TrEMBL record:
Species in which this protein is naturally found: Chitiniphilus purpureus
Broadest EC class assigned to this enzyme: oxidoreductase
Coiled-coil region list: none
EC number of this enzyme: 1.1.1.133
Function: Catalyzes the reduction of dTDP-6-deoxy-L-lyxo-4-hexulose to yield dTDP-L-rhamnose.
Record SUPFAM superfamilies: NAD(P)-binding Rossmann-fold domains
Pathway given in the UniProt record: Carbohydrate biosynthesis; dTDP-L-rhamnose biosynthesis
Catalytic activity from the UniProt record: dTDP-beta-L-rhamnose + NADP(+) = dTDP-4-dehydro-beta-L-rhamnose + NADPH + H(+)
Protein name: dTDP-4-dehydrorhamnose reductase
Amino acid sequence: MALPTILVTGARGQVGFELQRSLAMLGKVMAVGREDCDLADADVIDALLERVRPDIIVNPAAYTAVDKAQSEPALAQAINATAPALLGAWAARHGALLVHYSTDYVFDGAKDGCYTEDDTPNPQSVYGQTKLAGEEAIRGSGCRHLILRTSWVFGAHGGNFLKTVLRLARERDHLSIVADQHGAPTPASLIADVTAQILRQYALIPQGFPFGTYHLVAEGDTTWHGYAQAVLEAAIDRGWQFKLPGHAITPIPTSAYPLPAPRPANSRLSTHKLQAAFNLTLPHWRDGVAQVLTLLHP
Ligand SMILES: NC(=O)C1=CN([C@@H]2O[C@H](COP(=O)(O)OP(=O)(O)OC[C@H]3O[C@@H](n4cnc5c(N)ncnc54)[C@H](OP(=O)(O)O)[C@@H]3O)[C@@H](O)[C@H]2O)C=CC1
Ligand SMILES: Cc1cn([C@H]2C[C@H](O)[C@@H](COP(=O)(O)OP(=O)(O)O[C@H]3O[C@@H](C)C(=O)[C@@H](O)[C@H]3O)O2)c(=O)[nH]c1=O
Ligand SMILES: [Mg+2]
């Protein structure tokens, strides 16, 4: 079989950037950013699909500004729900595979243990609601699909909490970070590498391939406060210097850090289904932090 044409959206996002590296050996990768294809414009999406005619569509593009989405629900819906619906409809008509990414923020965070794929979503923010609508549109489109839910994404490329903490700890002598929201920081590179592994298995054994929804996060869990603390410790080990003294991050409750969008208290996602279906093991989030720090310089 000829190598597949793989369309990747969100080329300049954290995951889209890493996917261009990880998917390069699997086929002809065509990566598009916002300037090539505005996902808020249905006509532009259809024109792009007709021009590229992909065998596989990988869609990490999203409206990811969680607080801003509260006041821009229509735009968030267009990018996070309508665009995936259009990609799914095209994939269904043409027998293409759609790989899509979603979020821990589809859950309300009230569960005690890790969320499984069978748990009922109940998003509390506009971002979470529009991401859930995108998932549902894809499942309803009838296309072959993989929906990979992840959490707390970070990488050397693009904006994320790890980089914010490194910046704030250099600018300030005091930092307060919420210590009652639990989840797993997940490297964008891991998400991209797992996507490539899965697509390799799809290329080799398409019969009986286990399409569907999976949770994909790094091993282990922490709080935003524990994560920030680990980032600073790992950076200090690598010779970074901060205005903020060593362990001076103050743990605070969510109520002490009011934001427009509510975040789930429990964002922990079980990865058993993914590990069993694709015979994978997932590295610890701390390994990802250490690796990304080798790519960043004080
Ligand atoms: N970031 C996180 O912490 C998490 C992310 N996810 C999900 O993982 C996926 C990947 O996230 P991540 O890579 O971190 O996201 P980023 O925010 O890093 O990248 C998203 C990309 O989407 C692009 N985009 C936004 N609006 C449009 C538009 N109208 N037309 C075309 N492109 C657009 C952005 O373009 P531009 O650069 O021009 O703004 C950006 O490059 C998303 O589905 C996200 O919902 C899930 C859990 C956590
Ligand atoms: C910068 C900062 C944040 N915080 C808190 C606010 C919030 O509860 C938490 C994380 O802040 P952020 O705004 O960076 O994170 P947020 O934008 O909510 O991150 C989310 O993005 C979307 C796209 C997802 O899908 C989620 O998985 C998750 O990664 O840390 C502090 O307590 N102190 C601080 O100084
Ligand atoms: Mg954010």
